[in-house]
Design a protein that fits this description.
This protein is α/β, with parallel strands linked by helices. The protein has two domains: 339 residues, ABC transporter transmembrane region fold, CATH 1.20.1560.10; 211 residues, P-loop containing nucleotide triphosphate hydrolases (Rossmann fold). Helix content is 61%, strand content 10%. Bound molecules: adenosine-5'-diphosphate and magnesium ion. Magnesium ion binds next to helix 11.
Length: 579
């Protein structure tokens, strides 16, 4: 997949890294330095073709292009005198073949390199998102994640070939203008003046297109919120025309704003392209009308000069044209990725390096001592806190947690599992404080069915020898008929009702065979039949198997199942002593 010979210059920064870095803008000193580093590092890992090889190919392509021009020019001069030699025809074809090979090497190599760099950054970003602390994860909207992993990459990918052809045209221009200088310094000067106009026009308008596109992107992000409402709230909207109209109107308003901003960007772009083309025409006119005034060349010489100047100018124009249409969007996306990376920097947690390869030590006890936690957000200054929490769980013991709605039970479960960081007090595992970075091993002790659980479409790390157990559980939960293929080879939870899906989540949690089982109001939406199975069969079975069971429950009929009970009230937890 990668080009050969890449090891030879492995110390060279890859082309892609430079281009993307440049597009994202120079890092702001000091504060921005580190955050930019991660992008750079990610880019440095991808290396297919070195910058040096690419530069050589691009220069070779431009040399061939310019030489084709020179050969044509020379042959034309000879033809008008006493006929051209076949050597020129031969040379002409050789140069075209050379151009073909070099141009393809450059564009394909650089485009592949850029795609690989993008792929690499995306992989790093996905890993970093997966490592986010739950607390920080909750501070991002879904749309941000989709943008950061999908949308921005599309925007950059779509611009790659355009940008590269812009770069190539620029190089070709540099070569051909040298040839113009060789033919006529006066024509060279005229071309430089045209370049001056072009640069001026671009500098005047580029900021404006960027700005308009940025505003369009903001409007589109808000559009995504509206689309999210439309999809997720489809049933509710279906039942209420007024609600529906408001949501659809909001979508339309954002869409109109995006369209308006985009149109503005297009207007500016059109102005710029027309300006570029006009400069091109002016230059051609200047060569025809002005040059004869300054040079004594023959009619034919002037004609040929016009051809060369137009060739040089057109390569510049097409290069600038390709670039201006693309660079704003690509820059926007590169900045978006960089900004997202910057936000991750403050938030990524340090996991232990142990990612599940070692077996955790046998579980003997879990304890929370005076643990506090405060949510990151809340209404106004009302951020909800829990604590002090004092809590114990041991193998072979069933513990119930009760408490009113919003008393902090679910929050407490997330602190116990180290999904939320304890902000005060201590988590003790087997009597020893859970060290910094040991959270991962702690989490691996838990099999869970949270209130907002998610069922994947396949099992992870469950071996085939658990298959009989799987069938036993599926039958017990009356899911065997619903999932005739079992779970071992993937399954589709979408066809299950919410209650059935929760039973499936229970089956999966049990199959995972972890030392602590944690259920957040599991029975809340189950029939009495399944409640009875849950409290009278499953929980005692887990206890008998030496598991620790922590269950949040409201089912007072079954409180006798618990060995111990805790009660939560406004974030405070106390153990209930048997009356
Ligand atoms: N991610 C969150 N960010 C901010 N506040 C939250 C978050 N999750 C829950 N809360 C708040 O914490 C309080 C307790 O919630 P929760 O622990 O889910 O209670 P329970 O499970 O006992 O019903 C609620 O007032 C809720 O608004
Ligand atoms: Mg809850």
């Amino acid at each position: 997949m990668m080009a050969e010979g890449m090891d030879a210059s492995s110390s060279a920064r890859p082309f892609a890294a430079r281009v993307l870095s440049a597009l994202a803008g120079a890092p702001k000193a000091a504060a921005g330095q580190d955050r930019f580093q991660s992008l750079r590092d990610a880019l440095d890992r991808t290396r297919t073709v070195t910058l040096q090889q690419l530069a050589q190919a691009a220069i070779l392509a431009a040399c061939c292009g310019t030489a084709v021009l020179a050969v044509i020019n020379k042959a034309a001069a000879l033809a008008s005198d006493d006929g051209y030699s076949l050597v020129y025809v031969f040379l002409f074809f050789i140069l075209i073949i050379g151009y073909n090979l070099a141009q393809k090497f450059f564009t394909k190599g650089a485009a592949r390199d850029l795609e690989m760099a993008l792929h690499d950054i995306r992989g790093v970003t996905a890993t970093r998102i997966a490592r986010l602390d739950l607390r920080h994860f909750e501070s991002f909207s879904n749309e941000r994640f989709y943008s950061a992993l999908v949308r921005y990459y599309e925007m950059i990918s779509m611009g790659i070939v355009n940008l590269l052809s812009g770069v190539q045209s620029g190089i070709l221009f540099l070569f051909s203008i040298c040839y113009v200088f060789y033919l006529s310094p006066a024509a060279f000067l005229l071309t430089l003046v045209a370049v001056g106009f072009l640069t001026y026009g671009y500098l005047m308008k580029a900021g404006e297109t960027d700005g308009a596109r940025q505003e369009a992107a903001v409007a589109e992000t808000r559009l995504m919120d509206g689309v999210h409402d439309l999809i997720q709230g489809f049933k509710e909207l279906k039942l209420d025309p007024a609600k529906r109209a408001i949501v659809v109107d909001e979508i339309k308003a954002c869409s109109a704003q995006a369209a308006e901003r985009r149109s503005h960007a297009n207007d500016v772009l059109t102005d710029l392209i027309v300006y570029i083309n006009s400069t091109f025409y002016l230059l051609s006119g200047a060569v025809v009308f002005l040059l004869p005034l300054f040079s004594q060349g023959s009619h034919e010489q002037i004609e040929r000069l016009v051809m060369v100047v137009l060739f040089a100018a057109s390569s510049l124009m097409s290069g600038v044209g390709a670039t201006v249409q693309t660079v704003a969007g690509v820059r926007l996306a590169a900045q978006g990725i960089r900004a997202f990376e910057g936000e991750l920097d403050g938030q990524v947690e340090t996991h232990d390096d142990d990612v599940g390869t070692t077996t955790p030590p046998p579980f003997r006890s879990l304890a929370l001592r005076d643990v506090h936690y405060t949510h990151a957000t809340g209404n106004g200054d009302q951020r909800f806190s829990i604590g002090p929490i004092n809590f114990d769980a041991r193998p072979g013991e069933i513990v119930f947690i009760t408490g009113g709605n919003g008393s902090g039970k679910s929050t407490a479960l997330k602190v116990m599992t180290a999904l939320y960081p304890a902000m005060g007090g201590q988590l003790l595992l087997n009597g020893a404080p859970l060290g910094v970075g040991a959270t991962e091993s702690n989490r691996r002790l838990f099999g869970t069915v949270f209130a907002e659980f998610y069922t994947f479409h396949r099992l992870f790390n469950i071996t085939a020898e658990r298959e009989p157990e799987m069938w036993r559980l599926l039958t017990q939960m009356q899911l065997a008929e619903k999932l005739p293929g079992g779970l071992m080879n993937g399954f589709n939870p979408a066809a299950l009702s919410t209650g059935q899906r929760k039973r499936l989540a229970l089956v999966i949690a049990l199959l995972e065979d972890r030392p602590i089982l944690l259920f957040d109001e599991w029975a809340a939406d189950q029939d009495p039949e399944f409640r009875a199975i849950f409290y009278r069969e499953i929980l005692p079975g887990l206890k008998a198997a030496g598991k620790a069971v922590i269950a949040v429950t409201h089912d007072d009929r079954y409180f006798d199942v618990a060995d111990r009970r805790y009660h939560m009230d406004e974030g405070k937890m106390r153990e209930l002593t048997a009356a």
